[in-house]
Design a protein that fits this description.
By secondary structure, the protein is mostly helical. Helices cover 83% and strands 0% of the residues.
């Protein structure tokens, strides 16, 4: 009897007796129901645990992306003759130096300027409304300018704005002690992930079946390389934007330029629309100084946007992420809704990884069927 005959005879036997097919539901329905119930309860338990541990999970998530973002720098040092271990040590020291520098050098003046800015906003609004050009401009825009100034005043004087600028990245919505402890945990965990990134990847690959390991490793390495290049590139571009914005605002006489530069650093991390949002914000804030200064800021920021789009971004980002613009916007919106600024930042490389899997695994498989 050949194989085809055996399969047909087995199929007819299973149709005559469902229990013969080995189905647990057909042969032992009560045991099947018990196992399914246990599975549902286990899933609910895991969901509750994730909700209760969401701050820890988010911190691990941040640390992992920091490690991936710094991995291209490690490889850059390796290409210049350093060993992997020495490159890791150098990158960790640079990372710690940046964190310490932000805490001891940048943070105090930013906090002082932010406090002074919030206190001085009502007086700045009064001076603008009393100026001669404001009434004419407000009349020409049918009251739109006045509504913008009033809305900006309400927004900038809202303490919740300054408490959530980081988009939840370091638990700014929690207490100060919780934010500091979370930040310290993220820094330490990031250092650990940087030092053990290769070992961690090898351990994860060992869980994959040997027959699929090479293929899975290839796709995973490409995705993680894309994520690392994207994150490091976005940080570099955001830093350049923040420095340019701070210098420009200080040059036209805008007070509290450092605070606005820090805001620009975080906002420009949002793909595509980040620079546009900071340009609008900077132009409106500069109106408190004068219309001429606001026009200068607007023009120079538009020029910078073109330089960033056609010169800086191709050089810095390279081929890190190949994602259509519509997917970028949708991913940034979805990620920002779920996790704030952090979600908007990491949504793009995650989308790039999903597109890579669809393009090289799903589509070829569908074409073979």
């Amino acid at each position: 009897m050949n194989t085809a005959d055996r399969l047909r005879r087995r199929s007819r036997a299973e149709e005559a007796d469902p229990a013969a097919s080995g189905s647990l539901f057909a042969s032992r329905p009560f045991r099947w129901g018990f196992i399914v119930t246990l599975g549902v309860l286990l899933a609910l338990l895991l969901a509750v645990a994730l909700v209760n541990l969401q701050s820890v999970v988010l911190s691990v998530f941040i640390a992992a992306f920091v490690a991936l973002g710094l991995d291209p720098l490690i490889r850059w040092f390796q290409r210049r003759g350093m060993s992997r271990g020495l490159a890791i040590v150098v990158v960790i020291l640079l990372f710690v130096a940046v964190v310490v520098g932000i805490i001891w050098i940048v943070l105090p003046p930013v906090i002082a300027q932010a406090t002074a800015l919030v206190r001085s906003i009502p007086n700045m609004v009064d001076r603008v409304q009393d100026s001669g050009w404001f009434d004419d401009a407000n009349l020409a825009t049918n009251g739109l300018l006045g509504n913008l100034v009033t809305g900006l005043e309400d927004l900038l004087t809202d303490p919740n704005l300054w408490a959530t600028v980081g988009g939840g990245a370091l638990a700014f919505g929690a207490s100060v002690i919780s934010a500091v402890s979370t930040g310290f945990f993220v820094v330490v965990l990031s250092i650990y992930f940087i030092a053990t990134l290769d070992a961690t990847k090898r351990a994860c690959y060992s869980l994959v079946k040997a027959s699929h390991r090479v293929r899975v490793q290839g796709y995973a390495e490409r995705i993680m390389e894309s994520v690392g290049k994207y994150l490091s590139g976005m940080v570099v571009l955001a830093f350049m934007n923040a420095v340019y914005s701070t210098i420009l605002l200080a040059a036209v006489g805008v007070p509290f330029a450092l605070v606005l530069g820090v805001v620009a650093l975080f906002v420009t991390l949002i793909p595509l629309i980040g620079t546009v949002l900071t340009t609008i914000l900077m132009t409106i804030v500069t109106l408190f100084v004068g219309p001429t200064q606001a026009l200068i800021v607007l023009v120079l920021m538009l020029v910078y946007m073109q330089v960033e789009a056609y010169i800086l971004t191709p050089k810095v980002m390279g081929k890190a992420v190949q994602v259509p613009g519509t997917i970028v916007l949708i991913s940034a919106l979805a990620g920002g809704t779920l996790l704030g600024l952090l979600g908007a930042l990491v949504a793009i490389p995650i989308s790039a990884g999903i597109l890579l899997i669809i393009r090289e695994i799903v589509i070829p498989r569908q074409q073979r069927l």
